[in-house]
Amino acid sequence: MIDNVKIIMVNIASVILAFFQPIEDFCLAVFILLVANYICGLLADIIKGEEWSKRKTLQFFTHAVMLYGLALLIFACGHFMHARVEATQVVGYLFYVAFFFYGTNVVRNLRSLSVVDSPMYKLTDFLYYLLTFKIVEKIPFLSGYVARKRGE
Fold first, then answer.
1. Cβ–Cβ < 8 Å for 111, 83
2. DSSP characters for the chain?
3. What is the pLDDT of residues 102-127, one digit of tens each?
4. From 137's CA, which of 10, 14, 78, 151 has a CA 20 to 30 Å away?
5. The pLDDT of residue 67
C-alpha cells in the first residue's frame, strides 16, 4: 500500500514538473539570484555586526514562495487560456523585473562589504549606479514606477 502511494506521489510530481518545464530556465535563474541575495544579505549583516534574525530568513523565504507562486499561477492561467507562449513571456518579464530589484539589492550588499575606494568598491558602486539610474530607463514602466516611489 505504501509503495503504491509513493508511486502515485512520484507520478504527480513528474506531471507537475513536466507542465512547468517551459519556464524551468527562468525558475533556475531566479533561484540562483535568490541564493546570491540571501548570502550577500547574510554577509552584509554579519560584517555590520547585526544579527541575522529568524524573521529576516522567514521573510526571505516567504517572498521567494510568493514570487514563484505568482509565476506558476501566471503560467498555469495562460496555459489554460491557450496562450502558453504569451504566458511564458509574461513570466519572463516578471522575472526580469525581479532580477532588477534583487540584483540591485545584491550589488548594494556587495558594495557595503567592500573597502571604500578599493577596485571592488568602485566596480560595485558603478554597477549600482547603472542599475539604479541607467537600466531603469530601459525597462518599460519601471522608470515611471521608480520616479513615483522616489517622490513619495
1. no
2. -HHHHHHHHHHHHHHHHHHTGGGHHHHHHHHHHHHHHHHHHHHHHHHHT----HHHHHHHHHHHHHHHHHHHHHHHHHHHTT-HHHHHHHHHHHHHHHHHHHHHHHHHHHHHHSPTTSHHHHHHHHHHHIIIIIHHHHSTTHHHHHHHHHH-
3. 999 999 999 988 888 899 999 999 99
4. 78
5. 95
**CA-closest candidate to residue 68, choices 11, 20, 105:** 20
Neighbours of 34 (CB within 10 A): 19
Dist CA 49 CA 43 (whole Å): 10
Q: Which residues of the chain have pLDDT under 70?
A: 136
Residues 6+ apart with CB under 8 A from 108: 128
